[in-house]
Amino acid sequence: MMTRRTFVKNGVAAFTVSLAAPRFLSDLARAQGASSRNLIVLDLSGGNDGLSLLVPYTDSFYYSRRPTLAIPAASVLQIGTDTSGKALGLHPKLTGLKDIFNQGRLAVIQRVGYANSSRSHFAGTDIWSTANPANSSESGWVGRYLATLAPPLDPLVAWNTTGDTPHALQSPSVSVASIPSVSGYAFNSPNSGAEAQLERSTAATIASHVPVDKPHIAFVGTTAQAALATLDRVASVGTYKPSVTYPNNGFGQALQAIAGAMSKGIGTKVFWVQTGGFDTHASQDTTNDNGAYVKLMVTLNDGLTALYTDLKNTGLLNDTLMLSFSEFGRRITENGSKGTDHGAASVMLAMGGGVRGGLFGTAASLNPDASNPTLENSGGDVTFETDFRAAYARVIDNWLGGDSVGVLGGNFKTGPAFV
Amino acid sequence: MAIDHLLRRAGFGASSDDLAEYEPLSYSEAVDRLVNYEAIPDDVDSKIGQPGYVGTTSNGPFSPDTVINDARQRWLFRMIHSNRPLQEKMTLFWHNYFATGYSKVAGAAKADGGTTLMNGQIDFLRTNALGNLRDLLLGIAKDPAMLIWLDGDTNTKAKPQENFGRELMELFSRGVGYYTEDDVYAAARVFTGWNLDKSFKFVFNANAHETTAKTFSFPIYADGGRTIPARAASAGMQDGIDLINALAMHQETATRVVTKLYNYFVSETVTPNPAFIAGLADTYLRNASAIQPVVAQILLSPQFQDPSVVFTRYSWPAEFVARAIKETGWTGFSVGSALTPMINMSQQLYEPPNVAGWVLGQAWFSTGAMLARMNFASTLALNQKFRLATAATGARSSPQALVAFMTSRLTAPFDSTSDLAAYASGGAAWTGSDAQLQAKASGLAHLILGSPEYQFV
């Protein structure tokens, strides 16, 4: 059974002995801080339909297999041909991302996945999170990377913008901050003035007592300590005045907080952001303004374009790499509900000042013939060409300056040179 | 102590009234009262809005049948005040097990209709809270909110829809690794025609049912047969009943469900003794997938009563909120004040993150979620400031006496209360004045409820 429990249980004891001493925090924040590179991992949760994001608009099987979902060739945003000569275009709503592509700062990596792709959201997410198809209950790949940094780690070394800590960030030895709302990240009190100050200092004292014989209480105490130790730095992010207006949705606001954290130099190296709704089993509607997939693309485009422009304006773009993933792609043939079911390989996006933009990998032929090597599941799904761990390795080695072999537990240095 | 533990795990903690009711009972009598709740009248909803109970906050008349935030408040009210705490506790368990999200349902049925459909599902789970898994599976397969949530309403023979069939096996019965992709396709075809009519009522559309035989990788029938036979469309609903009857009685399902119940009631971190799990699974299978005897066996087991597991389970936000209110006091407080904090604690009722439910245990305790708990503690302590001070009048003689009073009211496994005592005696010299009692009693409530120790049940 897929579960985090085994990992969590084994992780507790190690966790409690590697506490960062709070008094080092400001130095640590500087040492690990603003001048170094940032990574933003974007989770497109639900299973993104790569064939609607990156459209093979000259493949006749794309149109015959998707009678209601295919995007007309005339409306796709053409971005050229891949090395196999196949012409491709972005979804019509990705206008900002096309501009970034034209500036050479967006890489579109085709057919990323792994062998025997799981069609389960949860097993699939765990595999992408652990970077280990054989054991999806171990620690997360980002968490393992963070664990290679020189200790003690700053509690803000990673900033998760969602409520729950994603599996990819989990590690026995690294605690990451979950800050879905900057304004909610504060310490309230039923009293005021000196009494409230005394409550805050007492809360910190209580949290600092880490009972070695009660690892569960120690875990929560460590979390509380980290929360109290990071309040003031996170509050500074709330004062950030962006140079552009971010979309007024959860994704846009999370990206604004990330830009603010970078701008205020609070020392975070890895950010995690998520936008969901990609599990389009029914009424996927890729072309009408109120269509489900159209809205997903608008959210994606407007958020990432705002982030890109803001960071470019503030001079932080060259320090930033955004990498997107989804737990799987979707079935090629549309289903009877005008949607698509769970599939296999999909596209990844990489965006940032250090990105070598362009189209990477080759598109699948969508011919359902059983001998077509680019498809699997009797011609039903797109087969992977690039191992997802090769994309991770590229980021770890070439962007973060880490050791991908150690973090990923194997040599995956074979991937496209997008960074 | 045993009763406290029992009421934290099999309920949402104990108010002083609850303790008075349960303490005269022997342990097994207390378990019996909790498990056989059908004997106790279910009149809790009639108390909403009456003096002496926690309040609610609404825009306009309180409308839990059609307004989702009012439905959420009604459920919190039930967790706090129901005389059938185990029924509410198991309803929460099933809400996580059959996790269905309001937003998608409301997207199809509008806000008021979505609320009604979600209430219908939760009420069904409540009615069957200790019933048979077989009945739960069959009911959930026909449940309108679930049919929207997992797209079953669009599942037709023209193009079978895999979503429900997959999760039925992965999450609701056997578990991942115990079914194949071909099983998913077969299960999708089994449930073709299990749809909704225009008013969101379940309907079996025989015309949309795929009638050919469906073969699985596991037994469907008692003789070991793995193939659901081809049937006339008019009789096609039997396909789904056959599949559910089989899944409910598989050993894999039994082990999976009783392990989840063990994790919920006994421990998430102590690996269960395999013989204990096997015994529970055996009880489940011998009783035709009935949950009540399994839960009774757990609550009466030495494993459950072992002192080493007391106060070790990471509390769910709903458990934390309900227990904090029950122990601190509720007069003048509204459960509406808990709705936004619970979002920040990562548990919005009726809105689990996905069909796998919430991620439990340590995952509840991100920094942001921990601050949300501390800040809810502050909100509650501020609201109850004067009542706490009044209740603590008899403990005004010294800071230590006040700490003793507060830690007996708000239960947490502190090794030492010296930090609390230092806080109580900090600042101005102790006089025991009303103003000082108000400041210190509320400050202590804030610190205790927001402490790491309090976050466990």
Task: Write a short abstract of this structure.
Chain A is an alpha/beta fold. Chain A contains 13 helices and 14 strands. In chain A, strand 12 and strand 13 (381-382) form a beta hairpin.
Kindly list the characteristics that best describe this protein:
heterodimer, A: 419 residues, alpha/beta, Alkaline Phosphatase, subunit A, 2 domains, nine-stranded mixed β-sheet, three-stranded antiparallel β-sheet, 35% helix, B: 457 residues, mainly alpha, two-stranded antiparallel sheet, elongated
Task: Describe what this molecule looks like in 3D.
The complex is a heterodimer of chains A (419) and B (457). Chain A has 2 domains: 25-182 and 243-408, Alkaline Phosphatase, subunit A (3-Layer(aba) Sandwich), CATH 3.40.720; 188-237, no CATH class. In chain A, strands 1, 5, 6, 7, 8, 9, 10, 11 and 14 form a 9-stranded mixed sheet that branches. Mean pLDDT of chain A is 89; it is low at 1-35. Chain A contains 13 helices and 14 strands. The two termini of chain A are 36 Å apart. Chain A has 419 residues and is of the alpha/beta class. With 457 residues, chain B is mainly α. Chain B has a two-stranded antiparallel sheet with strand order 1-2. In chain B, strands 3-4 form a two-stranded antiparallel ribbon. In chain B, strand 1 (194-196) and strand 2 form a beta hairpin. In chain B, helix 5 crosses helix 6 and helix 16 (317-328) packs parallel to helix 18 (367-383). The model of chain B has no long low-confidence stretch (mean pLDDT 96).
